[in-house]
Amino acid sequence: MRVGIIGYGTIGTDVAGFIQRGEAGEASLAAVLVRKGLTCESGPAGKSGKPLFTASFNEFMEQAPDLVVECAGHSAVAAYGERVLRTADFMVVSAGALADEDLHGRLMKTARENGHRLVVPSAAIAGLDRIAAASVGYMEEVSLITRKPPKAWIGTFVEDKLNLEGLTEPVCVFEGPARESAKLFPESVNVSAALSLAGIGFDRTTVKVFVDPGITSNRHQVVARGKFGELQLEVGNTPSAANPKTGYIVAMSVIHNLRKLSGPFMIGL
Ligand SMILES: NC(=O)C1=CN([C@@H]2O[C@H](COP(=O)(O)OP(=O)(O)OC[C@H]3O[C@@H](n4cnc5c(N)ncnc54)[C@H](O)[C@@H]3O)[C@@H](O)[C@H]2O)C=CC1
Ligand SMILES: O=C([O-])CC(=O)C(=O)O
What we know:
Layout: E1 2-6, H1 10-20, E2 28-33, E3 52-54, H2 57-62, E4 67-70, H3 74-85, E5 89-92, H4 101-114, E6 118-119, H5 128-134, E7 139-148, H6 158-161, E8 171-177, H7 178-184, H8 190-198, E9 206-211, E10 218-226, E11 229-237, H9 249-262
Parallel strand pairs: 1-2, 1-4, 2-3, 4-5, 5-6, 7-9
Antiparallel strand pairs: 7-10, 8-9, 10-11
Helix pairs in contact: 1-9, 3-4, 5-8, 7-8
């Protein structure tokens, strides 16, 4: 399976590294789309040689990827999604972009018409296998509480509202439906979108978001109840050194999915 990566930041670099070290099953790295003006022109060589690093989307797609992994942010999903899905599967890490109903609808239509798949990895959250299975029956509740340390909110709109350095107690900065949280925190609450897509949708999934000076990991707590029974889980993601908003687990989850999609054995669905 030939893989293309859009975005060579925290997640994209880790995903490329895993693939090039041969840790992504049958997947090989064909190309990386970098932002225009970026000087990075090469990355690690792998079993199929060096991938093409380019800022040209046409050149990127000319490498004929079977699957493209988006690791670049919401705007990249909107900018490239439909064009990717005409010829390849599209794995979207910035799942919050799909809170835009029109975009989600267009991506689904293009995927269907061209026989390709829109794939959302579990990334920073867990339990989506069970939530997705549970949503086959009636569900009363799916809720999420996301908590991250102050430094994870630098560069977000929260920075303008709070003195992040001076916090001594957790502060709730959002409470509402996942459709709003996914749009309000494009770089840091994509988990609410993945949870919504797996379960009962963006409007019925409820979310609370906290800046918490008492923790060092990015924590996501999920509660679900329905015909299936109930589920309560909490994950603590180690923030990556390059970007404290993003856990290392995100790239690992992408790799797990590449193994599944490229190989003869699937587990964790
Ligand atoms: N589903 C989940 O659980 C998670 C999703 N995310 C999503 O992943 C995104 C990326 O996260 P990081 O790698 O930590 O961010 P990052 O900021 O470290 O890297 C993003 C990279 O994408 C590049 N980029 C942006 N627009 C581009 C474009 N149009 N074409 C090519 N390259 C482009 C940037 O130059 C940068 O190198 C976040 O914005 C967030 O939306 C992040 C963490 C968890
Ligand atoms: O990595 C995390 O803990 C979650 C995250 O940034 C996101 O959901 O966008």
